[in-house]
Amino acid sequence: MNTPPHEQSRRNAPDGQDRGEAPAGLVMAARTPWFDLTECTGNRTVRWEDGERVGEAPMTLDTYHDLASVTKIVATTTALIRLVSDRLVDLDAPLSAYLARSYEAITVRDLLLHRGGLWEWWPLYIQPQLPPPRYRPGRARRYSDLGFILLGQIVEAATGLRLDRAVAELVTRPLGLTQTTYARPTGTEVAMSALDDRIEMTMLDSGRPYPVPYRSTDFARWRHEPVLGQVADGNAYHAFDGVAGHAGLFSTVPDLLKYCAALSRYEEHDRLWRPEVVRAFFAPGPDPEQALGFRRYALDLAGETVTVLGHPGHVGCAIGFVPRRDVALVMASNRLLVEGAPTPADDLWDDLLQAVTRRSRSA
């Protein structure tokens, strides 16, 4: 699920302005050649008594988290790096080369750059047929869940496997990510993802931030109880049984650090992919803050400005790494467990980047 524009704008709020309610639980971790940072606070699940939030179970480093849109890079983008390396997917091929009756004017590269012109979001559990593009393809970056849903389907078409099996064979198993799984986390310690489906219901009823022609009354299977051990994203859960290209993965902080370290040291894994293909995925596109699948962030580290590649997720996780510098960064939270406005994920991610900058100056 995309972060609504009103939340995105909050990241530029003046210092001291209310950023929203703090997450119930928060983990921040960094692994660098100069120092390690690990902070784990709060609770992974909560309950409410007389309008007050009461902790039920503490957050730990081994807690499983709903990665939401972090799935876009850990699963889908990384799988495509492997498939492009094996020449099974061509970045400049039209989508119709892999998906019958799909868009002719949109390429795989367009979707990875979020320049396909597709709608940002659409309730596929109400109307499973994708709508026509909302914008002219290739003209501007319009962050789109639909684009990564299609990319997940391209991974399936290229491998002949269901997406969860393809990601296991292409990504998680080769990288030793034993705690990274689709749809149903295997551990008992799972962070609560959301209070219920209220956010998605409100998006439909308000028409904001995306004016789709449906309302919450058009769907009958809403979750009215806490979302625990299930993906929060409505399309991933209600339309795709928890397995989709844009959302659905669960993982732990140690596994995410392992993933980031592997991507940082990508040249050491040339048995999995061609390094020149990885470098092409890491390079900036027409929008400097967007690579192929990955977002790009500037980070002041050890006296120089480096580029972090990564991605945030709506539920409250974000990851990043610095290529060839052995730097891995992970932030995990359950920021949606609030009655008011939650702290934007981008703000929490910025907090980690700033903490890393401060530590690097004193290391």
Outline the secondary-structure elements.
Blueprint: H1 5-8, E1 25-31, E2 36-49, E3 52-58, E4 65-66, H2 71-85, H3 108-112, H4 145-159, H5 163-172, E5 181-182, E6 192-194, H6 198-206, E7 227-228, H7 234-239, E8 249-251, H8 253-264, H9 275-282, E9 295-301, E10 304-312, E11 318-322, E12 327-333, H10 345-362
Antiparallel strand pairs: 1-2, 1-12, 2-3, 4-8, 5-8, 6-7, 9-10, 10-11, 11-12
Helix pairs in contact: 2-4, 2-5
Characterization of this structure:
With 363 residues, the chain is an alpha+beta fold. The protein has one domain: Beta-lactamase (3-Layer(aba) Sandwich). 28% of the residues lie in helices and 19% in strands. It has ten helices and twelve strands. It has helices at residues 5-8, 71-85, 108-112, 145-159, 163-172, 198-206, 234-239, 253-264, 275-282, 345-362; strands at residues 25-31, 36-49, 52-58, 65-66, 181-182, 192-194, 227-228, 249-251, 295-301, 304-312, 318-322, 327-333. The strands form three sheets. It has a seven-stranded antiparallel sheet with strand order 3-2-1-12-11-10-9, sandwiched between helices. Strands 4-8-5 form a three-stranded antiparallel sheet. Helix 2 (71-85) crosses helix 4. The longest helix is centred in the last third of the chain and has 18 residues, at 345-362. The chain is globular.
